[in-house]
Amino acid sequence: MRIILVCSAGMSTSILVRKMRNAAEERGMEADVNAMPESELHAHAGNVDVVLIGPQVRYLEDQIKEKVKGYDVAVAVIDQMAYGMARGEKVLDQALELKSE
């Protein structure tokens, strides 16, 4: 599974990426989790399964959905509580649920 977290290039997102990678590894699943600003997303739109948006940039949701339109990509805003507490396992669960819908 390929997951991109869209952020404003903050420190908390890089911590969350690391925790999500660890959670995936503990589950024995392969997950390619990366963070990037919205401006770089267009280059990856065809090579991602899920795009999760940091709560602080939730206003970008419509723009991001437009960028990945035509691709099989699930898009949602990261649960604010899970983001704030850097609960990588919860955000990974959110990504898995989105992809299974």
Describe this structure in words.
It is built from four helices and four strands. The chain has helices spanning 11-26, 61-67, 80-84, 88-100; strands at 2-7, 32-37, 50-53, 74-77. The model has no long low-confidence stretch (mean pLDDT 92). The chain is 41% helix and 20% strand. A four-stranded parallel beta sheet has the order 2-1-3-4, with helices on both faces. It has a single domain (2-100), classed as Rossmann fold (3-Layer(aba) Sandwich). The radius of gyration is 12 Å and the shape is globular. α1 packs across α4 (88-100). The protein is of the alpha/beta class and 101 residues long.
Summary, kept brief:
This protein has helices at residues 11-26, 61-67, 80-84, 88-100; strands at residues 2-7, 32-37, 50-53, 74-77.
Percent of residues in beta strands: 15-25%
- The CATH architecture classification is 3-Layer(aba) Sandwich
Which regions are unreliable across 5 or more consecutive residues at pLDDT < 50?
Answer: none
Helix content: 40-55%
Question: What's the total helix number?
Answer: 4
CATH fold descriptor: Rossmann fold
What is the overall shape?
globular
Oligomer: single chain
Strand segment tally: 4
CATH class: Alpha Beta
Major β-sheet strand ordering? 2-1-3-4
Compute the gyration radius: what is it? 12 Å
Average residue pLDDT:
92
Could you give the distance between the termini? 14 Å
